[in-house]
Amino acid sequence: MTILGTDTAVADASPAPAAVRSPRRIGRRLLANAKVRIGLTIVAVFWLLAIVGAWLAPHDPNELSPDTLQGPSAGHWLGTTTTGQDIASQLLAGTRPVMLVAFGSGAIATVIAMVVGVAGGFLSGWAEEVLSMLTNIFLVLPAVPLMIIVASQLPQVGSWAVALVIALTGWAWGARILRAQTLSLRARDFVQAARANGESTRRIVFFEIIPNLATVIATSLVMTTLFALLAVVTLSFIGVTSLSDWNWGTVLYWAQTQQALQRGLWWWFIPPGLCIAILGMALALINFGIDEYANPRLRIGSVGAARLRRQGIRPRVGFTPVRRTAPARDPLDERRAG
Amino acid sequence: MPFLLRRLAFYAVTAWAALTINFVIPRLMPGDPVQALIARFQATGQVSPEQTESLRILFGLDQDVSLWTQYWQYWAQVLGGDLGLSFTYFPTPVSEVIRQTLPWTLILVGLATLISFVIGTSAGMVAGWRRGSLIDGLLPLATFFAAVPYFWLGLIAIALFAVTFPVFPTSGGYDVGLTPGWSADFVGSAVYHGMLPALTIVVSSLAPWILGMRNMMVTVASEDYVTVAHAKGLPARRVMMSYAARNAILPSVSTLALSLGFVVGGSLVTEMVFNYPGIGLALFQSINAQDYPLMQAIFLILTLAVLAANLVADVAFVLLDPRIRRAT
Amino acid sequence: MVTDPILEIRDLRVDYGYGADAVTALSGVSLTLHRGEILGIAGESGCGKSTLAYAATRLLPPPGLVTGGAVLLHGAPGTPPVDLLSLPDAALRSRRWRDVAVVFQGALSSLNPVHRIRTQLTDAIAAHDPSSTRRSRLDRARELLAMVKLPEDRLSAYPHQLSGGMRQRVMIAMALALEPQVLILDEPTTALDVVVQKQIVEQLLELRERLGFSVVFITHDVSLLISYADRIAVMYAGEVVEVADAESIYREPRHPYTHALLNSFPPLQGPRRVVTGIGGAPPDLAALPPGCRFHPRCPYRMPACAERHPGLVASPYPGDDGRTVACLLHGTDDTTAVPAALAPRTRSRSA
Ligand SMILES: Nc1ncnc2c1ncn2[C@@H]1O[C@H](COP(=O)(O)OP(=O)(O)OP(=O)(O)O)[C@@H](O)[C@H]1O
Ligand SMILES: [Mg+2]
Fold it and tell me: Which ipTM value was assigned to this complex?
């Protein structure tokens, strides 16, 4: 759950957009990145499963059957539990709540982060101090225990309650990077110029600042969604959320309580974890793509380096590569004639 | 030293906020679960009147007293070290449960985090310095481990290294036959039991360090002073360590502090999976037993621990960055 | 003043970028620095002056790429020169700073903010002379600071505790730590106010008298070069367009760009002239005009200028010994084509 740990790439090597870029252009540039495309495809597949998964499921996830503890087969794609429930159906039924909570609380948290972060970057005096303090407090408070004490004291812990609890504990990271970026934008020429022209603060925020925050907002959204994904399955796994709602964490909860590990029932605990890991990886990939877009210095990855090496070029600081090619001689160039 | 003073003030406010959250949440929630529990234990005559009173103050069961008075009573009681009774380990006081479990967590999570930081930062340093090297290729793997929940990695680790290939014990913090103490047997057994959980925490928390340090190395490598260091003809190692990495690590140190909250959260669940006798397991049991006093105390104590670790990171930061010493 | 060369740059070519989208920042620059001289390099912003300084020392950061040429460093008379661009890493590293030291543009960011001045002065000495003692290195650092007239207590200061001028002096002191033969200064004074600028340049001249190193002085401020440099090379869009001694450049520029450049600065001394800017903008390196790169902005352009690229050749006029210029106006049979401003002054033109 620590993928959120470092925000250095965003906060310190932030891009220097000369002026507003249209969201559509940013979108097109991002889609040119293979990592973003792969990540988005995976997310789309999971959304599809979230929508049609319940109908696709071959069994009722709660249905008990005499076929207990069976390995994967044609009838039960991912085997069955100690009570003969179909694990594949449980996973399919659990996709929708997971997606809704992860993306829902990711979105809510990002909205909170935008309000707090942009306002914090724009206000001054005590209001700014308070917002910044609030952000920092929520950053250091350990999120999991906080979510547990809030969620476990709620009388009913349905999907929306969980989404809200996660959003309320997970917005601070996004607020921090948004605030940093707003502060740096505020000092830029084009914002100063807009101010000098007497444009209203509201106009500046909505037309100059927010469009230029697009990549940071996207980063915040993606990473908070990842945080929410890990948080919701964690909460379900430790049994804080309602067990009547299926979700990947709940499947793991039952696997753990029924000693699936000790009994070697790998089909019970491997697939749910893989679902989480693949979705999480997809979100991380999208974030890599955004990072590379925002900070082009990161772009020469291993692939580019390998191609350059074949040409005999090793780009590095301190020792400029030298590759003497026969200079393309201009026939009219008199330089070497005399 | 204004920087540290400012940070101390911030920690004071955060600690206050954590305590206040503990005060507010039970009073906001509609149900009265604690009331029900008290009634149950009172019926069997196991709870003394003072203990009931302390729980009333902590959870706001005295409706006739003003909120303001409740707040003061609450503070007075918490500062006196009375965090109520644990229902899970009835009738042990919560503070006693914490005293027994906290050291396990501090050592396991503290060491694992430190190891992860050192390994991850070093790997990130090399990956950022030599783009396209082997470690750069390792990055996707590390990201995969960061994108899976700690507890699942823990489950896999147990399935692999404790069940299929029984190299490590499946659960617990030490051999049940031993009595806790500073004997060689006990320490050896504790280290042995701690190995697999620690490994899980290290592996899952590695990626952010690698990534953050790598990105900072790439950024710092194009700073003028690094070029100057090359121009001076310094040995490659010195340029990397004392010019690039020395500066690139600064943001990592400041995020080390911030990400501790996340690491602690994930590690707690790892403890649950491994049945490790730390605070995470206590938290898990308190959830099942609806042991609200214990849950809240754990939140509080973990916040304080994270704040203390933050302070250490701040001091390190001040020592590493001369500019901060002057900044106000 | 013709002495033997110490640093020869031959046909240096540099690209930014590695693939199809690479732009050529230097297209065949040749220059010679003689022993003991100050060679000034002038040109508008973006013409490739810094690129030249970095590439000549192989310090150009990615995406820089040297695509051709040589940088010959001459040692003691009789020994063959070495090509800095062909040296293996270790050999290049040991030559850096000991033979060629560089003060880069923007000393503000050239010092590492987390190390004391002392550390940054002495670590170069330690790297090149491992047998030196800590004491001797410290003594040397103190001596160096004294050389640039900084109090010795600044040794234990951090860069952020120094003013811009002080930092620039520290950089100069650092560059002289190993008594290099060649000192390359890239706009050493640009960010400073005029008074400090003058102080630093004069201190440098004094040190050169004392220590006898040769200097490549890069600046966009030609007037500064005219007062201090021995010879001046003028660059335009990645090429050298004219080289001559400072006096001649000032009195009789041969290239229209040199002429325009001179007129765009008020002279520090000597007769005042009207200051005019240079019309137009420097060309985009990715889309250079055909023929002479300056012709779109040149007031004296001829039809041929758009077609033929002029090479840097010896100036054809008697008395112009050692001058080179890359302009089609000169050296044609039709001497009337040469505008008065660029023609030799003292000799009468035969019709
Ligand atoms: N990383 C880069 N990628 C692409 N082009 C670059 C890069 N760095 C520099 N250039 C181009 O190379 C040219 C030469 O730049 P250089 O810094 O050498 O100019 P300069 O003469 O030193 O200018 P100044 O007087 O402003 O210092 C410029 O036109 C610049 O646009
Ligand atoms: Mg320059």
Answer: 0.89
